[in-house]
Amino acid sequence: KLEIVDDVVGTGPEAKKGDTVKVHYTGTLLNGKQFDSSRGKDPFQVTIGQGQVIKGWDEGLPGMKVGGKRTLTIPWQMAYGEKGSGASIPPKAALKFEVELIEIVAPEGGDAGKAAAKDGGGAKAGPAAGKDGGAKK
């Protein structure tokens, strides 16, 4: 069973299935051996619930708020399964991820995106984009 522990509850918007998010993460085996981390690099971007990542992430990220930190303890069935992954994740390995939600990326189909597309891509997608239908002055 997937275990979710909120270490820090964020104060920003809440991520849900279908959102594209940027996160920092550190992945370890249950013995504490680290196999991957985004720390010191650009945040990792993923769309939740699209099967782009292991099932434990697709089910463990929704409900996080921006600024929050969460620990996911993921059973092998929701991670890399019977085969494992590469040299660092053995077969049937349960995994632990510390995940920090950095931001929720505006969806492509949002108002700002529609306004920009209607103007042939010339509209600046600022905070007010889309409210006036992207009309040129």
Describe the structure.
InterPro entries: PPIase_dom_sf (IPR046357), PPIase_FKBP_dom (IPR001179). Keywords: Isomerase, Rotamase. With 137 residues, the chain is mainly beta. 10% of the residues lie in helices and 30% in strands. The protein has one domain: Chitinase A, domain 3 (Roll). It has 2 helices and 6 strands. Strands 1, 2, 3, 4, 5 and 6 form a 6-stranded antiparallel sheet that branches. A hairpin with a 4-residue loop joins strand 2 and strand 3. It is globular.
Entry summary:
With 137 residues, this protein is mostly beta strands. The protein contains two helices and six strands.
In terms of DSSP E residues, the strand content is 25-35%
Overall outline:
globular
CATH topology: Chitinase A, domain 3
Oligomer category: single chain
Low-pLDDT ranges? 111-137
List the helices and strands in order. EEEEHEEH
Broad structural category: mainly beta
**In CATH's first tier, which class applies?**
Alpha Beta
* Fraction of residues in helix: 10-25%
Q: Helix tally?
A: 2
Number of domains: 1
Number of strands: 6
Main β-sheet, in a few words?
6 strands, antiparallel
CATH architecture: Roll
Q: Overall mean pLDDT score? A: 84
N/C terminus separation: 56 Å
Radius of gyration: 18 Å
Keywords: Isomerase, Rotamase
GO molecular function: peptidyl-prolyl cis-trans isomerase activity
Catalytic activity: [protein]-peptidylproline (omega=180) = [protein]-peptidylproline (omega=0)
EC number: 5.2.1.8
